[in-house]
# Entry
Amino acid sequence: MAARIRTSEPMCEEEVRTMLNRSNNSIYFTTWTEHYHLGMRLRVTFPYTSAIDLYSSERGAEVVRIDRLTDGRLGISVRILLP
# Structure
């Protein structure tokens, strides 16, 4: 299942990533992008499709863990913030 991840930092482009794990209040995905940091605020849409989807909504989120994986990617754990 895909998620769209956007930051509030103007130099960072949004990403669409496959979630490796998710719960009601968190998601985990991998990326080659190095701009993520602990405490970083994000806007996350999941599930995400490029088609208009009335059931998908963007949520505020925060990076709570970053794993350096053996292949060089980062594993990003994100906590979904309450509305």
